[in-house]
Amino acid sequence: MAIMKIRGIQKSFNEKQIIQNAEFDIKQDSRIGLVGSNGAGKTTLANIINGEIHADKGTIEMFNGALKIGYLKQSTDQALHETEDAYSLAENGLFHHSSQLGLTKEVDLFNEEWTNLSGGEKLKLSLAGVWASRPELLILDEPTNHLDLQGVEWLIEELSAFKGAIVIISHDRYFLDRTITEVVEIEDGITKSFTGNYSAYRQEKERLFQVQLHQYELQQKQKQQIQQQIANLKGWSDKAHRDSTKQGSASERRQIGYKEYHRMKAKKMDNQIKSKMKRLNQELEKNEIKQPKEESKVQFEFQERRKRGKRIIEAAALSKYFGHRCLFDQSYFYMNHGEKIGLIGQNGSGKTTMMKILLGQEKASSGDVWLSESLKIGYLSQDVTDLPAVKTAMEYTGLTDRAAVGRARTIFANIGLPEEKLTVPIGQLSLGERTRVKLVMMLLEELDLLILDEPTNHLDLASRESLEKTLLDFQGSLLVVSHDIYFLEKISDKLLVIENRKITRKEFGMKEYNESTVKKVNDKEKEEQLMVLQNEINAIIGRLSYMTRDEPGYEELDQKLTELFRKKRELA
Questions:
Q1: Residue 318 pLDDT class (50, 70, 90 cuts)
Q2: Strands 57-62 vs 2-13: parallel, antiparallel or unpaired
Q3: Which of 377, 384, 383, 396 has the alpha carbon at shortest distance from 441?
Q4: Contact at 8 Å (CB) between 4 and 60?
Q5: CA nearest to 20, candidates 62, 56, 48, 53
Q6: Edge-to-edge strands of the sheet including 190-195?
Q7: Can you give the pLDDT at residue 202?
Q8: What is the pLDDT of residue 82?
Q9: Is pLDDT of 302 > 80?
Q10: What span, in angstroms and rounded, lies between the C-alpha atoms of 353 and 311?
Q11: How many other CB atoms are there within 10 angstroms of residue 62's CB atom?
């Protein structure tokens, strides 16, 4: 049974139509993935469903006229400002849910320490707040942005157990495949529905693309054949018209009726041309097959880097405290030119703070950080709401030189921001489009080190894959924080790991780290199993020491002891 019916939704901003026709049903047990490229209108539609903005046209019908909606927004700061009922949320299990997400420290919701939380910690509290509000419909806009692995796994399990309806906006393929059973795609402002998870949707999209491409090519061949026939007829008709006006002797004209013959011939051909043109136009009007739209190709390209010396960063006895709270203490690490380093750690461990120390935006509590004097750094922060909302993307670049402006426009186009996006205020762009604006600012410069804090957040899949390829080709150095495990596995060849309040350099990438972590977990499990077996063995030996061989139960215990010894040998 549908709990919400969305019909004919349209929405424009400044004469730019974002949504042309949105139509789909949300059922009581729906698991819908709302997908589309950056700027397609996904968040706008979510805001319309939540009642935060009004549609220009269309209706939204709710079951029994009302529905309790839990809405997690892309920007955690926006969501936090709306936590006015924090006390009631706390009573309904806000901190219980946040602890399951891995946020174990106490947080005063109404104290300024709130602002010191990391993006991941804020997201976990926002997620916990959504759950504690006990909604009937969940709308989650990029819920895995900033989340560590523990948080993602918790969210997948909770979504599986959730009894209400769910709408998820995400570009995380792994997450969508494990959580949704239906896809609603927004393309050119129009929604289309598909059954299955994200991988099934991609397969069906490819199949439909190939079918439409085949039908389009057949129709184009048919069209070309008819047009060639028309061209031939027109050529013959023109010749017949010319021949009908030729002058010959009177006797010749009388004998063959020269002019009249060619005049009739030309008229007949003209009628044939009109008939074929009419049939062609009718066929195209009735059954025209448009050329299928290929997915947009996004190109990132950094300026050539100047060569640098080997060591570019070095930290000695680095420590950072917020009051009594220690993020990391007495840590030593370094970075060489050309290295691609992933910075990993649990939410709230201090990853963003460490980046800000390197950038000079935050002071260390103690210790020293040395950076090469000639080092030119580009920084992409998690927050994309800090861009000037009233400026256009081109105004934000600050470029005035004609050649530089031309190059910037080319880069914007390559990165998937067409001309019409450059003439509207940044505040009207989606968060994914704002991320692209920030990336363009970095692409315009000649940089040695890129510090990227969750660079794939808000980016659509085409942009993620292009950025991934570009970073692999980048000749400078990278320091990257990302919740996207697959992205880090491809990008990183070294790691800085924050755990147990220490920053430690690892001489391998994310893939090797994951494999070693799994091995550690397996070793720990083996130790625990061996301990359990040994305890059972000790207990049985203790019982047998008080028994004689002819006592009832002795033989059974002896056989069990033999079996336990066998299991212990196999495990060891």
A1: very high
A2: antiparallel
A3: 396
A4: yes
A5: 56
A6: 57-62, 2-13, 16-27, 190-195, 182-187, 31-35, 165-169, 137-141, 69-72
A7: 86
A8: 46
A9: no
A10: 22
A11: 17
Write out the E strands in 471-563.
477-481, 494-499, 502-506
Name residues whose C-beta falls within 8 Å of residue 90's C-beta, 6 or more positions apart in sequence.
109, 132
**Chain centre to alpha carbon of residue 32:** 16
Flag the least confident range among 281-290, 316-325, 384-393. 281-290
Are 167 and 49 in contact, with CB atoms under 8 Å apart? yes
> Does 310 score more than 80 pLDDT?
yes
Six token digits for residue 185:
């795609």
Average the pLDDT over each of 22-26, 243-247, 288-292, 443-447 and give the range with the smallest value. Answer: 243-247
In which residue are the tokens 């510090």 written? Answer: 451
* Cα–Cα dist 96/204, whole Å: 41
Centre a 10 Å sphere on the Cβ of residue 404 and count the other Cβ atoms it contains: 13
Q: Report the amino acid identity of residue 492.
A: S
Q: Are the C-beta atoms of 167 and 34 separated by less than 8 Å?
A: yes
Three-state DSSP state, 10: strand
Average pLDDT, stretch 490-501?
89
pLDDT for the residue numbered 81: 42
- Kindly report each contact of residues 502-506 with a partner whose C-beta sits within 8 Å and lies 24 or more positions away, as own/partner: 502/328, 502/329, 502/330, 502/331, 503/315, 503/318, 503/328, 503/331, 503/332, 503/333, 503/354, 504/331, 504/333, 505/333, 505/334
Distance CA 314, CA 370 (A): 5
Please enumerate in sequence order all residues whose Cβ is within 8 A of that of 335, keeping only pairs 6 or more positions apart, or say none: 311, 312, 313, 314, 341, 477, 479
Q: Is the pTM of this model over 0.70?
A: no
Q: CA separation (Å) from 124 to 82, 134, 143, 145, 346?
A: 15, 16, 9, 10, 12
Average pLDDT across the chain, whole number: 78
Phi-psi region of 330 (alpha: psi -120 to 50; beta: other; left: phi over 0): left
Q: Record the tokens describing residue 477, joined without a space.
A: 């150095």
pLDDT at 48: 94
b/e sequence 257-287, b meaning 16+ C-beta within 10 Å: ebeeebbebbeebeebbeeeeeebeeeeeee
pLDDT tens column, 91-119: 445 555 555 555 554 554 444 455 666 66
The answer, yes or no, to whether residue 515 has pLDDT greater than 90, is: no
Distance CA 93, CA 79 (A): 18
